[in-house]
Amino acid sequence: INCFNEFINTFSSKKIVKKIIIDLYNNGKKNYVDNFNNLKKDIKKYNIKLESKFHTSQLTSAKDFALMDLFKEKYNSKIITYQHGHGQGLSEYHDYIKFLKETSYSDLNHVFSKNGKEYNSNNNSFSISKTVVSKFYYPYNKTLTKLNSYNNNFDIVYFSPWHMNGINHSLYNYGINDFEKIKIESKLIKNYLSKTNYKILIKKYPYDSQKYNSENYIKNLVANYKNLTFYNKTLKYPEFYQKKQIILLFGCSSTFGYLASFHNPIIMVNLKNYFPVKKKLEEHFKKSIFLVNHDDQDYKRLLQKLVSDKKYIYEEWEKKTIYREMFYKKFLGIY
What is the DSSP letter of 53? Predict the structure, then answer.
């Protein structure tokens, strides 16, 4: 708990803050121990051999880490991890969660670019693993992509990054609360997407269970506009992919690396409190895709232009091709 002293001392009610931190720590520790003991009982039914390798791309909960530690302790397993998303080290947020990154707990870690290897090897003081560069894999089936089995055609697909925390927090917590998420998304829909003449798909974040009774707010809001369609089922992008379809997203999260592999025009809204792009890389992004800083004075005009003028998007996207190819290759491992 002493490592939190500097943080605690910034508050006037130090005792209350300290108590909250201690409670969170104790709850987290109990959650981990309970999961470890339960998994230890359940795992007996499986015929797992000694020194079996443990493969994963990302651990996000106390249960995940309990399972990994159980494999280490019971089976003397080597932990082999694979880079989650392709944008390793592109966001300021990655520097804040180094102790949770793949190289911080694995024996061997696969990344998709030289940039990813350099970031893990040189910038993560918590790193304990050997990092190797693996060939980039396309996270979709090209044949299914060409078939485009989704019946409706959309000009723009907005990939919502928001899943509500509720009371069940992931170990990956962000500087943005549930209320702010709904507020930001509501403004995007009301002030920009609903005012275009284009057909737009609002794609909800996958694998997210409902946390609140009122969580259907965005779904109900979208229903008011004829040009918008809300989709909240598990759906891979290739199922409604179209060439030159415009992609819109918030933040430089793992979703960006996945969507970049389709080589479609990307509009990224850069937020200070959700996977912000590193300052030194902003120009690289602006020369490669359409990066819009949420807090800039020109934000409203620029975003309105981008979601309302496909001709402009396509022309500018072509101009960025050479630089984008170099950027994708160096930082994402996408050729």
Answer: -
Q: Are 106 and 80 in contact (CB under 8 A)?
A: yes
Angle at 164 between CA 212 and CA 216, to 5 degrees: 50
The pLDDT of residue 187: 95
Please report how the helices 62-75 and 14-42 are oriented relative to each other, as an axis angle in degrees rounded to 10: 50
Strands lying side by side in the sheet with 246-250: 228-231, 200-203, 156-159, 246-250, 266-270, 290-293
Tokens of 139: 């996270």
Positions of the chain with pLDDT lower than 70, given as ranges: 1, 85-87, 98-100, 137-152, 163-175, 206-215, 234-241
The amino acid at residue 306 is L
Question: CB neighbours (10 Å) of residue 197?
Answer: 8
Instruction: Centre a 10 Å sphere on the Cβ of residue 160 and count the other Cβ atoms it contains.
Output: 22
pLDDT at residue 151 in the model: 56
Contact 133, 111 (CB under 8 A): yes
The angle subtended at Cα 125 by Cα 6 and Cα 284, nearest 5°, is: 100
Residues 6+ apart with CB under 8 A from 253: 85, 87, 91, 161, 274, 275
Handedness of CA 3, 5, 10, 16 (dihedral sign): positive
Give pLDDT, residue 4: 77
Structure tokens at 52: 């079996």
- Burial grade of 288 (CB within 10 A; 0-12, 13-18, 19 or more): buried
pTM: 0.83
CB-CB contact of 218 with 193 (8 Å): no
pLDDT computed for residue 54 by the predictor: 92
Two tokens at 220? 């109900």
